């Protein structure tokens, strides 16, 4: 009799289960990012997996190329899904820095122009909170050593 996925999971160690769940989460974020880009008129042709990284369940960052051969950084996760052309950052670490700073500036601009209602206030606060949550990963040597295979 063939094992079902649930039976297979019971046979996995805790670490293997954690890695399997993280990989599943990463794939979900990839689908979320691809769908978001499609809504923005960007049709993904290639995902450069070797340049992608994630810290589940906070964020996943992807480098993609669209059908017009343009490259982008895309971030998804427990934060706003967002994207920018690849010229904003040479690598995933600097792309995270870009999104963090971009969100802080966007929130600051919203405040400067004048927040008109609680929805705008909540959105500006969420941008700041998420920017502050991801920025420490820019400085995380452990994350980038792991990424480089060191």
Summarize this structure as a short list of keywords or feature phrases.
150 residues, single chain, 17% strand, globular
Summarize the helices and strands and which ones pair or pack.
Elements: H1 5-11, H2 14-39, E1 44-47, E2 53-55, E3 59-66, E4 71-77, E5 82-85, H3 92-113, H4 118-138, H5 141-148
Antiparallel strand pairs: 1-3, 2-3, 3-4, 4-5
Helix pairs in contact: 3-4
Structural commentary:
The protein has 5 helices and 5 strands; from the N terminus they run ααβββββααα. The relative contact order is 0.10. The chain is an alpha+beta fold and 150 residues long. Helix 3 (92-113) packs antiparallel against helix 4. It starts with a helix and ends with a helix. The protein has one domain (5-148).
Shape: globular
Share of helix, binned: 55-70%
**Intertermini distance:** 42 Å
Task: Please count the beta strands (DSSP E, at least 2 residues each).
Answer: 5
The tally of domains stands at 1
Q: How does the helix and strand content classify structurally?
A: alpha+beta
Number of helices: 5
Mean pLDDT: 90
Largest sheet: 5 strands, antiparallel
What share of the residues does DSSP label as strand, in percent?
Answer: 15-25%
What are the secondary-structure elements, in order, as H or E? Answer: HHEEEEEHHH
Radius of gyration: 18 Å
Task: Provide the low-confidence segments as ranges.
Answer: none
């Amino acid at each position: 009799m063939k094992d079902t996925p649930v039976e297979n999971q019971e046979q996995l160690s805790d670490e293997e289960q954690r890695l399997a769940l993280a990989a599943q989460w990463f794939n979900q974020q990839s689908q979320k990012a691809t769908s978001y880009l499609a809504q923005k008129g960007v049709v993904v042709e290639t995902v450069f997996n070797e340049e992608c990284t994630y810290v589940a369940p906070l964020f996943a960052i992807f480098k993609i190329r669209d059908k017009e051969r343009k490259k982008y950084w895309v971030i998804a996760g427990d934060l706003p899904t967002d994207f920018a052309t690849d010229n904003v950052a040479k690598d995933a670490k600097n792309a995270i820095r870009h999104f963090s700073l971009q969100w802080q500036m966007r929130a600051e601009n919203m405040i400067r122009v004048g927040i008109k209602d609680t929805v705008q206030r909540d959105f500006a606060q969420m941008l700041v909170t998420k920017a502050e949550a991801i920025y420490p990963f820019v400085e995380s040597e452990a994350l980038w050593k792991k990424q480089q295979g060191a």
